[in-house]
Write the structure tokens for this entry.
Amino acid sequence: MLILSRKLNERIIINGNITVAVVEIRGDKVRLGIEAPLAVSVHRQEVYEAIQQEARNGLGRLPAKGKPIFQLVGEYCNALGRHGPDSEQARAVLEANVGNAEFLECAGALNRIKRGLDRESNGDAKGGGA
């Protein structure tokens, strides 16, 4: 383990793309600020251990297609954002995962969010011109 000393507002750079800063020191507690790419997961140890335990218990299982749920949801988000919820691309992702209840629940929520955002932007555009 590498041990470094830092004072308030000083930083540590890891691998050129992760920054850890000492944000606050209060008594025996140190608050750290961490800047990392979105692809890098950052968790407190107890949260990380809980995630690992869920994975061992089967809650983090892979769907039948062999892709993790976050990847399937990401593909669906991409189709929604680029083509819309009624597009052929979005329907293809839905149809490929018709037996995956967890994915379908996420997809339904994403559809509701997308339609709500579309209504808001259409309402703003109509309201601004009148």
